[in-house]
Amino acid sequence: MNANNISARYLGQSCVEFDFNGTKVLLDPFVSFNPLAKGVDVQLLQPSYIFLSHGHQDHVADMLEIQKNSDATVAAIVETAAWVRREGVSEDRVIEFNFGGTLHLPFGKVKMVYALHTNSTPDGVYGGMPCGFIFFIGDKKIYFAGDTALTLEMKLLEDLALDWAFLPIGGHYTMDMYDAVKASKLVNCKQVVGIHYDTFPPIAIDKEEAKKVFAAEGATLYLPDVGETLSL
């Protein structure tokens, strides 16, 4: 498979819509409840797949509506996948997997990796562990960290030669910009897209400071506007 048409549209908070050579893959859908994403019409999102890093409301709030509109397949760790089923998504549209597991899908491979955070689903039930994902699309490798603190587990990704890393930078609930730049060094990736920042007052950041922090370590931090598309 050629990896010559890969892009990512940032939809606010940690919601990213990847286009993998024509296949739309949506991560952590939180759009209609996000005051910074007023310009994004959730009704127009038509992914083939939805991946959930964990079950917190600011990562799953629009999952059901988007799934119903698109008939997307939803993939998540086992316990969060059980919540997806409880919401009424049919069994044949849910993929459960776990750490170390790799999905072989029509657009490429997806491996579940460790994240250091907490996880419950909106109905108050234990959601299993939070996680991140690595997407292998042709010769490209893209790391979506989900919500995580800085952890030495990231060093296990060092030898993958990642092309891009989507890292939380807002602090308070996840690692901040200073820990995120350390994370970029642990995973050996200099092309970083910031996620999980500015949506709520506790995670507001100084964007120029964040870019300087990364530049000082020889890395580039991209902070796209909501609705902006990056070519990967």
Automatic annotation (TrEMBL):
One Pfam family in the UniProt entry: Lactamase_B_2
InterPro entries associated with the record: Metallo-B-lactamas, RibonucZ/Hydroxyglut_hydro, UPF0173_UPF0282_UlaG_hydrolase
CDD domains per record: metallo-hydrolase-like_MBL-fold
Domain of life of the organism encoding this protein: Bacteria
Domain Metallo-beta-lactamase as annotated: residue spans: 12-196
Protein's UniProt name: L-ascorbate metabolism protein UlaG (Beta-lactamase superfamily)
UniProt organism field: Sphingobacterium yanglingense
